[in-house]
Amino acid sequence: MNCEPTNACIQKMKSDQDECEKKLQQITQLLEDLHYISYDGTLIWKTTNIDQKFAEAQSGKQTSIEPPVFYSSPYDYK
């Protein structure tokens, strides 16, 4: 890659990096979505910070936990 002047080269690299970060974010989201697919009717829902969630529920601050969106079959709705 031969760029002149240097500022143009830096701008091109920034643009390329932004595009790569955007694609990485899309792939990461796709992988997360694929994690929540169940073909046999079983979904394992992993929760973190359970002690904190219990404390928030007892105080009335957060009384429910929303599960992630998941697919119940390959061709079904979320």
Compile the SSE list and pairings.
Blueprint: H1 6-35, H2 50-59
In brief:
The protein is mainly α and 78 residues long.
Can you describe what's shown?
Helices cover 51% and strands 0% of the residues. It has helices at residues 6-35, 50-59. It has two domains: 1-36; 38-77, no CATH class. InterPro entries: TRAF-like. Residues 58-78 are annotated as: Disordered.
| General form | elongated
Strand residue content: under 5%
Mean pLDDT: 82
How would you classify the quaternary structure? Answer: single chain
Helix-residue proportion: 40-55%
Contiguous runs where pLDDT drops below 50 for at least 5 residues: none
InterPro entries: TRAF-like
Region (Disordered): 58-78
Which short descriptors sum up this protein?
78 residues, 0% strand, elongated, single chain, 2 helices, mainly alpha
